[in-house]
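[recover] target loaded
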């Protein structure tokens, strides 16, 4: 990323929100030059295009003067900074599996899958339309998913596991994915292949829904 834009993101991360004038002051400290407000606005325009900062919001002054526009980081931008999510998730899973029985762990992760499905809020549409919505949801969450017709229904395939490293040492996550697919679609899938066991992808046979 261009250095000035990276500095702008760092300032916004540290301060929460900033005006153009605020950014000029902070950038001059960091860069040791006389960067102008015009240049900062140019970089803000580019960051807006990349969905890294929010659209400017008016902030009224506590003292006399015109209100100013403030900028902040988007969630997408915050995800670009280093984080410790993998270590946290790995240790949480290890602690859960040590403290609870296998059945209890399954119940916990099934609850997580059901919560995720509820948050997805997929409407009750004709099955193929619902399947398309589910594919979109899965792709938005890193699964690289697709589907194809099958003599017994449909096959849903995912070629990327968003928590592949964790799943290698914790098969409970694979069962959670099965539950997630079932909850999203309202059918009980049958596992055909699993990437954590050396297959090229994870695939599930989705039986034709009943016509009741």
């Amino acid at each position: 990323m261009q250095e000035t834009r990276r500095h702008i993101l760092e300032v916004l991360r540290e301060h929460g929100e900033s005006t153009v004038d605020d950014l000029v002051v902070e950038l001059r400290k960091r860069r040791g030059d006389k960067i102008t407000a015009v240049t900062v606005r140019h970089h803000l325009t580019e960051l807006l295009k990349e969905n890294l900062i929010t659209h400017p919001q008016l902030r009224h002054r506590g003292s006399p003067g015109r209100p100013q526009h403030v900028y902040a980081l988007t969630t997408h931008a915050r995800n670009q900074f280093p984080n410790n999510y993998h270590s946290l998730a790995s240790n949480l899973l290890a602690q859960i599996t040590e403290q609870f029985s296998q059945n209890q762990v399954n119940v916990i992760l099934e609850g997580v899958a059901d919560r995720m499905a509820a948050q997805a809020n997929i409407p009750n549409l004709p099955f193929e339309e619902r399947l398309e919505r589910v594919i979109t949801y899965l792709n938005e969450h890193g699964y690289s998913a697709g589907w194809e017709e099958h003599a017994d229904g449909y096959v849903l395939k995912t070629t990327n596991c968003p928590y592949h490293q964790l799943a290698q040492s914790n098969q409970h996550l694979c069962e959670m994915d099965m539950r997630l697919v079932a909850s999203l679609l309202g059918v009980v899938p049958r596992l055909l292949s699993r990437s954590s066991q050396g297959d090229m992808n994870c695939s599930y046979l989705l039986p034709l829904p009943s016509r009741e």
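[recover] notes: The chain is about 50% helix and 15% strand.
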